[in-house]
Amino acid sequence: MAPPVAYFSYSVRLICSLITLILNPITLYNGSKCNLKYAQTSMVLCHLCVKIILAFCTLVYCICVFVEDAEFDQHALFVFWATLFHQALLLVATFSDLFLTIDRLIAISYPLSYARVKKKLVLIAVLTCSIVFAGSATVFVTNMTEKAGRSLIWMESINTTAAVAIFAFTAAAMLPLTCINVLFLYKLRRYNKRVGFQSSVDQLSKLVNNVVFQQVILSIVVWIIPAFIRLFIEYGLNITINSAIQADPSVTLIMVYMALCSIIYWRKLVSNNVSNVEVSSR
Description:
The chain has about 280 residues and is mainly alpha-helical. The chain has helices at about 5-35, 40-65, 75-110, 110-140, 155, 160-195, 205-235, 250-270, 275-280. It contains 9 helices and no strands.
């Protein structure tokens, strides 16, 4: 039986997953209806799809946690794959964030080149995320322990070497994401000073830049800084934070960040009637 703080953490994840599963499809539908996929939002819509898949897998994973007192042996395979998909997609979501920021960085730095490479960039993002997911799944499947399917703690489902490798790769992926985020904030600030108030600037592009700007700020504040603080405490100060049983707070913060981003996308691209913005920008 997990402690109450763990159930609270998983409850937060479940609620955040539901928010994402409700709002992101609405945003996707609105984007398709307004033909936004042909404008400057191709990567945004792809990013929303990744978050929908992650939210669904997190929802299933949380349900498994809440019924963990049931007999796992009857559903061992389902429990294992739920744990695998959840952990692998958390890593994929990091790369999805990275490519979204790169997309906006190219759009504001090289607008003419962006028009030619935006579709290729989406394909590269999808391919990279697929490779990361397949690689993570392969590591899980080829390094299963006897607890696989009997534990919802992913580090207990695979051997120690594989768990350390996945954890190290996840931590390493945060470094380029942080650097790209900081560079984007710097470039966007200069871009807004240069052309931000020109009436000829594509209004939809400005809207998407603003949305991604808010997402970058959220990612830095909500989960990147806390994650680096945790790494410093555990490896710099050599203080162990045992959060395996009590639910990893870093994952909970990622889910909170994801839900907040879903709200931002919904408010900016749906609630504010983005179709009018698209029409005015043509």
